[in-house]
Amino acid sequence: MPDNIKKMRLKFSKTGNMRFIGHLDVMRYFQKVIRKAEIPIRYSEGFHPHQIMSFASPLGMGLISSGEYVDMDLVCTEEEYSAADIMNRMNKVLSEGISILDAAYLPYKEPNAMASVAAASYIVHYTDKSFDMSFEEICRKKTVFFDEASSINIIKKTKKGERKVDLKPLIYRFDIKPEANGYFFDLMLSSGSQDNIKPELMLDTFHEAMGISTEAYHFFIERTDLYKNVDNTFVPLIG
Asked: What is the pTM of this model?
């Protein structure tokens, strides 16, 4: 690989009205921003060249995030375009709701962001609920459901059909924390191509175990970061 071909990883946030923009539209938007910001991105060869970039993990519609990632190939040296320079160039032309939070050059043989993802962290708030449960009570319910359980078996629907899944080893963190108007959930769940556990699935299973209908509550979900597994330790994709 030529010395002037570099791999860069960007960390970005997606908030506000941008949470209603789907993944494919976000990809197209980044392509336009890269051209407008005059980022020296590498293009594929052939009759229909396209920008060489890949996103870590699609974000569900309606979720906000402070931990999204995209990799891209650049045709430059680090002396010509520093990571800070790339970040600043893009932030100048990005619309409200998406912001580049960090940027880093990577070894070219580093696995891409999508292949690296092993876990995702979330903060989940209730937006509305018709049941009243104290912080102490829901913590007791969580202890029975998760801490004391040897397994949490569910039927998970996939594109290939249904399969039995034990959620217990795929929930890496399940904390309930108090706040002024009640409490919120602090989660870290398995993510990626093998066992991708959505916070809605995990929390719906928890509420069903408490005998609470899914119609009794709604969530506001923020994905706070994505992680790779390095020697059995979860590390942010830029860290």
From this structure: 0.93
